[in-house]
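Need a sequence for this fold. Nothing fancy.
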């Protein structure tokens, strides 16, 4: 199993500290954060890439390892369009540079693709909610370890 909570924590805490801005879970409970802030949402939960898992044995343990991908969507919210765009660009740049290395070193996650920033403004009543966002595809290794009891001996009867 991938360490989902550790990965989420590393993405949120590290990028939030770098931007000096809160990153909050999209559609989470509680009141909205004051502007500016960025939301995140794991849109594609880990999905295996093509191929089969590598299987190895170590004593009584059987280990399955496979590369998995997942996508996180980020949206920058602000009072003004310029601020929303700039904050999205700062976060995107972080994933392309320092964030790429930090996630790889800390939680064994590689930034596979950083999408283009898109306008995601929405009209709420008579007001426009200014938001700009992008998606990031990540890769990591899913490791599953199970205990296997070896067959010590077997009676074979021939007919």
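Here you go.
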């Amino acid at each position: 199993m991938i360490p989902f909570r550790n990965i989420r924590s590393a993405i949120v805490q590290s990028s939030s500290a770098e931007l000096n801005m809160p990153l909050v879970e999209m559609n989470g409970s509680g009141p909205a954060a004051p502007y500016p802030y960025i939301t995140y949402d794991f849109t594609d939960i880990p999905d295996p890439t093509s191929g089969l898992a590598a299987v190895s044995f170590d004593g009584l343990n059987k280990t399955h390892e496979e590369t998995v991908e997942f996508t996180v969507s980020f949206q920058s919210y602000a009072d003004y369009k310029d601020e929303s765009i700039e904050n999205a660009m700062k976060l995107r740049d972080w994933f392309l540079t320092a964030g790429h290395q930090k996630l790889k070193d800390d939680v064994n996650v590689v930034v596979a693709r950083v999408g283009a920033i898109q306008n995601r403004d929405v009209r709420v009543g008579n007001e426009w909610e200014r938001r700009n966002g992008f998606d990031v595809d990540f890769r990591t290794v899913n490791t599953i370890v199970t205990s296997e009891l070896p067959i010590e001996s077997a009676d074979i009867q021939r007919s």
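For context: The mean pLDDT is 89.
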